[in-house]
Predict the structure of Endolytic murein transglycosylase.
Amino acid sequence: MKRLRAILLFFVLAAFVAVGVAGWMAWRWTDTPVTMQADKVDFIVDPGSGPQAVARTLNKAGVAVHQRGFAWLARYLEQDKLLKAGAYEVRQGDTPRTILARIAGGEMSQRQVTFVEGWSYRQIRAALRAHPDIKQTLEGVSDAQLLEKLDVQAPNPEGLFFPDTYLFNPGNSDYEILRRAYLAQQQVLDQVWAQREEGLPLATPYEALILASIIEKETGHEPERVRVGGVFINRLRVGMPLQTDPTVIYGMGDAYQGRIRKRDLQTDTPWNTYTRSGLPPTPIASPGRASLLAAVQPEAHKFFYFVSRGDGTSQFSANLADHNRAVARFILGRNP
């Protein structure tokens, strides 16, 4: 009888030890870095995914995770009901516990796309198409359909998207990012319009946006933006054509090959400010905040003309005679 009791006690103790060792090993596994096929692995948790489905996704992505162990850990930590759909990443050194906490906490990975000041709408769309992590939903969608989707009353989408760097989760759509850029532009434009000077020959925020886009394309020299804005405001006030080459280039479209000829200046388009007075019908690019401010807070001066000096700055003139001398000097290389 004593022998039987000893045997039973041995097996009970052995079972307890086995359970303890198994528990210790399982707990150690939760804090052991996972094996990965790369330094960083991206994966997407689909809506409605449970812990085992997440573990299967991780394994398919190249992250070795025990499915049942991952599900057990999620239930033990009461995180199995907290898993959030979205894009995530696993980094070297991550453990099952840290991966689970990241998904339960919704700490999604992010990417970025940058729209540069002065870019056209065509360039913005090209950047969206070229980004591998952006879901493409606008192929075949016309400009008019996009504007309707955005609930915008405008002739075309040009200039409506604020140039900035936008963070997003992999799988976000091109439309979602464009909508954010549109709302950002509207917010900035509203703020700038509220700060406009009195008596400007600009009737609406959209007209300020048009003028700002011209300023954006005319100079990259920050201190001169307000002075260039003042030149165009002076011209608008007296009914003088703006005569700005970037609008001509925009109106030429694909016909522009890097050079403007005399016949291009004489060929009428809605954007040719040599053949038409006033502002063109739409912006010609996406202006940044500095150009928007220059449009509504221009420098007060008597200049009506300016020409590039060739070093990024411009020579400003109050009359045509002085302007012609500046052109001869800086463009034609003569010193009259």
Summary: Residues 164 and 182 are 11 Å apart (CA to CA).
